[in-house]
Write a structure and sequence with these properties.
This protein has 413 residues and is of the alpha+beta class. The protein has helices spanning 12-34, 47-58, 67-79, 94-106, 111-128, 137-220, 226-255, 273-282, 300-321, 373-383; strands spanning 286-292, 325-332, 336-343, 387-392, 398-405. Helix 9 (300-321) links the parallel strand 1 and strand 2.
Length: 413
């Protein structure tokens, strides 16, 4: 069975092609050895010519593995023809022409070195004839034509090599471009997954925390203050309904195959801060807001980031701080907006500086697994060119502070 793997036997069609080329070169060499000065008359070549033809043509199948050696053997075979009484003709140099083409096509040396080899071969062919005596003008033309054949074959081989290299470079660029597109697509998918996860975290953490706080109030007041319990349960229904609407809207965007039929609800910003604070008020958290400087419209990305950071920070206060109040401070400067959320803390707040999910009853802060709230807030701030810091306050409680870039304020006329 004929092998096709690297290092195995050549395919059968390759052997047939090489055999046909070798046989054709051998036939041309023998025909050229029978041609005399009078081209109309043929004579049988000497016995040594047959042996020289076998050696000269027999090495041609090796020209792809050892092109320089085959080039040397075929050139020497053509040069030895005239001393045996053979006429140096294009037929006699047919093996040299084939070897020159293959050498120029497969040579791994520099182009100057390959060109030098071809010129040396042509020079040897030219030098082989004058050894027999003076040359006529017709003989000189014939010898010049014979010497040009290997050079022309080498030029054609160089052209074929350049074309192969060009096609290989085009294929390589196409392959790299495809890999780059795949890598870019994977990167964008990863970024989109992070963005969706961040949005869902902000929505779910906020709404579920409020629902948990309202349910806790209802359970605590169930026996002693039924009216207050009823009010807390009503607020709990409203909170969970809002959470379902938000989740339905977010997940609905993922299911759409095309553009939405109707414009989506605009992304939240600081304009919705009063509504956000009212939701925390219903959960039992009193939030005061203090502003410094002149407020002005924010870029959409910065507006959403500021809103989400306030939302996440207050959600963490509800979950971990153990206090019923918090303070939000907005400082408007010329080139940045500083947002701080602080609480006085409690027993839980003094031992927690993370945004882990609510732990089971009886678990301490050290038992809670690490969360993603602070990571998400920090990523949001960095995404718009800002920065965020968070940590426990020396006087107690927890502080989240972020600086977000703003476009320069317009000077009044």
């Amino acid at each position: 069975m004929t092998g096709t793997r690297s290092g195995g036997p050549r395919p059968r069609d390759t052997w047939r092609r090489e055999g046909a080329i070798t046989a054709a070169a051998f036939a041309l060499w023998l025909l050229g050895s029978m041609v005399q000065d009078d081209v109309s008359r043929l004579s049988a070549p000497p016995a040594a010519a047959y042996l020289l033809a076998l050696v000269t043509c027999g090495v041609l199948p090796l020209r792809h593995r050892a092109p320089l050696a085959v080039m040397a053997v075929t050139t020497v075979g053509a040069v030895l023809g005239p001393p045996l009484g053979l006429l140096l003709s294009p037929l006699l140099v047919a093996p040299t022409v084939i070897a020159a083409y293959s050498y120029a096509l497969t040579a791994r040396t520099e182009r100057r070195a390959a060109s030098a080899v071809l010129l040396i071969s042509a020079a040897l062919l030219v030098a082989s004839t004058p050894l027999l005596g003076a040359l006529s003008w017709q003989d000189a033309s014939r010898v010049g034509l014979v010497a040009a054949f290997p050079v022309v074959a080498g030029v054609l081989g160089h052209s074929a090599q350049n074309r192969r290299a060009y096609l290989a470079a085009v294929e390589e660029r196409a392959r790299r471009a495809e890999e780059s597109r795949d890598s870019e697509a994977r990167r964008r998918v990863g970024e989109e997954r992070v963005r969706i996860a961040r949005e869902l975290h902000d929505l779910v953490a906020h709404q579920i925390t409020l629902a948990n706080a309202q349910a806790t109030v209802a359970a605590h007041l169930f026996d002693s203050r039924p009216e207050q319990t009823r009010k807390s349960l009503k607020e709990l229904v409203e909170t969970t309904a809002d959470a379902l609407d938000d989740l339905r809207a977010t997940v609905g965007l993922l299911r759409q195959s095309g553009d939405a039929a109707a414009p989506a609800e605009p992304a939240p910003g600081l304009a919705r801060l009063p509504t956000l604070l009212e939701s925390f008020h219903r959960a039992g958290l009193e939030v005061s807001v203090h502003e410094e400087g002149t407020a002005r419209p924010l870029p959409p990305g910065v507006d959403l980031t500021a809103y989400r950071i306030v939302q996440e920070a207050l959600t963490n206060v509800t979950k971990h701080a153990g206090t019923g109040s918090a303070r939000v401070r907005l400082v408007w400067n010329r080139d940045r907006l500083t947002v701080t959320v602080a609480d006085d803390g409690g027993t839980a707040g003094k031992s927690t500086a993370s945004t882990a999910p609510t732990a089971p009853r009886g678990a301490t802060a050290a038992d809670r697994p690490p969360g993603y709230g602070l990571i998400g807030m920090r990523e949001r701030a960095l995404a718009v060119g800002g920065r965020l810091s968070a940590g426990r306050r020396p006087e107690g409680g927890f502080l989240v502070s972020t600086e977000l870039p703003l476009p320069p304020a317009k000077d009044p006329l």
